[in-house]
Amino acid sequence: MLKRSYYGLLSTISLSAFGDAFGLLAMEWLVYELTGSKLAMGALALSSGIPELALRLIGSPLSDRLPRVRFMACLAAVRLLAIALPLGMGLAGQLQLWHLFAAAGLSGACAALFMPTAMAVIPGVADSRKLVRAFAVIDGCKGAAALLGPALAGVITAASGALPALGINMLCYTAAIATLLCLPKLPKPDAAPGSFSLTAYMREIAEGFTFYKQFPAMFTIMLMASVSNLSSIAVWTMMVPYVREVLHRDAAAMGTLTTASALGTLVGLGVISLLGEITHRRLVMLGSLGTIGIITSIWGLVPSFPFALAAVFVSGALGPFFGSLSSSLHGRLVPGNLQGRVNSIRFLIGGSLTPLGAFAGGAIAEAYGISALFLAAGLLPAVFAGTALLLPGLRMLDGDLSMLEARHLPDSRPPAAAPAVLAKR
């Protein structure tokens, strides 16, 4: 049953990622066609990012309170309805900017809890000794979906417009929902009491932050992720203007760049899977972020499509050396009954600056040009990663983690149930 659950979860995440590639490119393209404004494109990302951050905070205990697989299916269903709004209005010839913003906001709110819930399920259906590989396979399938999706979305958008791409996004969500509903029923998380009270719910939200109080090195890592994500969203939000104004190419080129990034990610994940357990985590994680930043800065100075392809490929290959190691650290150090809320807070911290990055990306590109944006967006994570390497507290992430794994958080259930869970872990 566990293998079936793992592969079903793998299929669901891949289908969602494949559909997201179509929906994201289509909505960005439609916004640019309707307005021609870089600020409007930044505002689209902002309309998705703010609800996402808010729900990750206030909804973080839900992944531990509710049956996780069914909860994911409900979230995917709401995202399906959100995409139906701009698609239906577009087919009727009545599409307006607010339809796209509403769809992005609703989809972002649901995405806030979809991936944290999925990450909470994985440690329970995968071998604890192979978590790095389990997360790498998940990331690899997401990368494979992102490899095919943007290229196909770009070709379809260039040939037939953006609305067919939104239709494919809806089909992918439908298939993902069906897959989730067919999975074996997993035990309901029992970290929270059955009855609801506001005091208990607020305490459960706070427990998600307690992990980072106990492991400050992990909090520093997530702050680094937030800086990196700020830079990344600033760059990728401006990819449509970059392709059209700097490279003078069409949607197919946009899809090709995204595909090159995904192909690089697959290569990086393949290398991680072959390497197995990495002990020098601090140097590998921060080194990958710093190198990506340097490449991004150089990319902004070289307005060449072949160079852009090489830059996104290498950056994509380096990304998993941070992401998969971060996921495996959380999988090993966070107690099973707190996985949902801690992963929600993890994504909250990591994405806390993305709304700012999305809006700032549009503002900087509008005022100083896209090349200046790429230069600034690359220097920021490079400087922060270099500084973080000097922090002695991060050395605890290197080497054997067995002593850290023993420092679990206090169980949030009634005292009578705690000894059995501790023994099981």
UniProtKB/TrEMBL annotation:
A single GO cellular-component term on record: plasma membrane
Membrane-topology descriptor: Multi-pass membrane protein
TM helices/strands, residue ranges: 7-27, 39-59, 71-92, 98-122, 134-156, 162-183, 217-239, 251-276, 283-301, 307-325, 345-364, 370-394
The UniProt record lists the keyword Metal-binding: no
Molecular function (Gene Ontology), one example: transmembrane transporter activity
Coiled-coil zones: none
UniProt-annotated location(s): Cell membrane
Entry annotated with the keyword Transcription: no
InterPro entries xref list: MFS_dom, MFS_trans_sf, TM_effector
Name under which the protein is recorded: MFS transporter
Record key words, sorted: Cell membrane, Membrane, Transmembrane, Transmembrane helix, Transport
Domain Major facilitator superfamily (MFS) profile: 217-425
Superkingdom of the source species: Bacteria
